[in-house]
Design brief:
Length: 189
């Protein structure tokens, strides 16, 4: 069987099933409508009255929904305006505070300089009252001590000590030429 034929038959069978289902649904709705009309008639209500009531309720619900939408739209706009205004106020206040802090910091640095100068001045006055120490006697004493240490070190120099005598040095081995090992000579005594 060809694939096209299979697909065609499948479409036909699905279409037939859908058509049958729709027909059954329509018939069920019609039956339910007739049953509802009978029950409403037992209570003394006509189908036109039900339709009118449903239309009125739908209109009322639609108008309430529109009013709610308008009300929320207005409140959203007001809220957006208020938030923009509040944000702008906060930014301007922050700028003012930043400028004030900058001025205060500048003034604090200036005051600190003045106070430091006053403290140095007071310290100079206090130290000016005390006698100044003389340092040159100490320097002279250190120079004399260094000269004495140098003299002692020069007079007690050790005698030179040789580790080997020049005469008894071992001869240097001769270099190896072309892989030949030279004969060992005994040192002269």
């Amino acid at each position: 069987m060809d694939e096209v034929d299979v697909m065609t038959r499948a479409g036909e069978s699905v279409g037939k099933a859908v058509g049958t289902g729709l027909k059954a649904a329509r018939q069920g709705v019609v039956r339910a409508g007739h049953a509802a009309e009978v029950k409403l008639a037992e209570r003394g209500i006509t189908a036109d009255q039900v339709r009118g009531t449903l239309v009125d309720r739908a209109d009322t619900l639609m108008s309430k929904a529109e009013q709610w939408e308008k009300q929320t739209r207005g409140s959203r706009k007001r809220l957006a305006k208020q938030s923009a205004k509040t944000r702008a106020d906060l930014m301007s206040k922050a700028e003012v505070v930043r400028k004030e802090v900058k001025k205060a910091a500048k003034q604090a640095r200036k005051d600190a300089k003045v106070r430091a100068k006053e403290i140095r001045k007071a310290a100079a006055q206090l130290s000016g009252d005390a006698p100044k120490r003389r340092r040159w006697p100490w320097v002279l004493g250190l120079l004399i001590a260094a000269a004495a240490a140098g003299y002692v070190a020069m007079t007690r120099r050790p005698a030179e000590v040789y580790l080997q005598d020049d005469e008894e040095q071992a001869p240097m081995p001769e270099p190896v030429l072309n892989g030949q090992v030279p004969t060992q000579k005994e040192p002269a005594k």
